[in-house]
Amino acid sequence: MSPQVTTIGLGYIGLPTSALIAANKIAVFGVDVNPEVVETINKGKIHIVEPDLEEVVYKAVQDNYFKAGTAAVTADTYLIVVPTPFKGNHEPDISYVEAATKGIIPLLKKGDLYIIESTSPVGTTEKMQELIFRERPELEGEIFMAYCPERVLPGNVMYELVHNDRVIGGVDEASTQKAVAFYQQFVKGALHPANARTAEMCKLTENSSRDVQIAFANELSLICDKAGINVWELITLANKHPRVNILQPGCGVGGHCIAVDPYFITSDFPMESQIIGKAREINNYKSFWCAEQIKKAKHEFQLKKGRTPAIALMGLAFKPNIDDLRESPAKYIVQKVLQEAQDEAYYIVEPNIQAHQVFKLTTYQEAIAKADIIAFLVAHKEFSDLEIPSEKTVLDFCGITAK
Asked: In 3D, which of 293, 106, 281, 123 has the Cα closest to residue 199?
């Protein structure tokens, strides 16, 4: 059957979104530059870890509502769900969005709907509108364009894509309404109309807010370490106040949202975004500090025991119970510690991936058994009930032993 929707990008958001749309009996053609990803999906399988996703993909492919390829095909609606990385000094790079848009410009026709879901700097949708009309001036006033950011939690994506509210901003009122009607087909959460610039800023604001709140918790953890106070106990007690809700500290902030999106604001509004910029500095510093604490524990062990320790580094993902290593502070810490490695043994653990191209992975059971120093970087569920012998040194950067 002819696709009604073409999705550009089949990653952590593009694939679940495509599968959800197809599950609602809307024909979807998904595009990815990686032929292996395309081949995997066309077999009804998936290349990422996300609960409930594989079942939805398999059924959609079997029912012929979902197919993948490496080049876009004609549809009525086009979703741009590609990465927006950095260039230079944390400057947003919208070249992937631009390339994806250029790829569909020859396919566009009167009445089509074009939607960007990729996290983007304010004004990106309007820039893509200018690009399209520059190459296809006859389409001006004839197609609909909007921005609708995702706001899902890895590990719960399939539920949240359906039930979370969405902000939908068109380049004009007609585009907003057209996009709202599209999402109504498969989203049960409330759909909030806006304009494109507000929708773009809303996504950046949500994640910057989280980053600032996490930075407060991480700053508290640094203060408490110097003051000899258990930060986990402190936060639990402070949160007994009816109007206080401090988040939990960690070893930094990762992922392709909270650790990235604030830079989209600080890059365009450097003088106005003082708190947002400082929060980024604090959360980045926390990762550096954790690496230094591990090195310090190693040197103290050597002085006390007269031998080099074995060290377990527990977790590589950017948050618990997922396989996503993008912008992961834990991965940064492991790299930082290994840069100064000498003859000590390291046991690197990440239970959610089978292998890593740089790190040799170990099971958590072997790591706990063999290590002298155990550094918890990510609060994976596998780590929550471990029996750790009292003679071992434990560095808990994620609160796993405080639960």
From this structure: 123
For 388, residues 6+ apart whose C-beta sits below 8 A from its C-beta are 368, 374, 394, 401
Pick the closest to residue 204 from 97, 118, 121 (CA basis): 121
Residues 6+ apart with CB under 8 A from 91: 263, 267
Specify whether the CB–CB gap between 314 and 378 falls below 8 A: yes
Pairing outcome for strands 91-92 and 86-87 = antiparallel
Q: What digits encode the pLDDT tens for the residues 334-343? A: 999 999 888 8
C-beta neighbour count of 313 within 10 angstroms: 28
203 noted as active-site residue = yes
360 is catalytic: no
pLDDT at 273: 98
Q: Residue 267 to residues 202, 280, 333: CA-CA distances in angstroms? A: 16, 12, 26
Angle between helices 124-135 and 95-104 (to 10 degrees): 30
Task: Choose the catalytic residue: 203, 286, 298, 319.
Answer: 203
Report residue 338 CA to chain centroid gap.
25
How many other C-beta atoms are found inside a 10 Å radius of the C-beta of residue 129? 20
Average pLDDT, the chain: 95
The closest of 402, 356, 398, 362 to 377, measured between CA atoms, is 398
Q: Which helix (H) or strand (E) covers residue 145, if one does?
A: strand 144-147
∠ CA(98), CA(280), CA(352), 5° rounding? 75
CA–CA separation, 263 vs 349, rounded Å?
30
Instruction: Examine the pLDDT at 68 and tell me if it is beyond 90.
Output: yes
Per the CB < 8 A criterion, the answer to whether 21 and 57 are in contact is no
pLDDT at res. 154: 80
Structure tokens, 258: 């909270």
The residue behind tokens 């977790």 is: 315
* The model's pTM: 0.89
Three-state secondary structure call for residue 245: coil
In whole angstroms, what is the distance from residue 166 CA to residue 181 CA? Answer: 12
Numbers of helices and strands, H then E, in the chain: 13, 14
The catalytic residue among 67, 148, 178, 257 is 257
pLDDT digits (tens, 9 = 90+) for 235-279: 999 999 999 999 999 999 998 789 999 999 999 999 999 999 999
Q: Is residue 35's pLDDT more than 80?
A: yes
Given pLDDT bands bounded at 50, 70 and 90, which one contains residue 403?
A: low
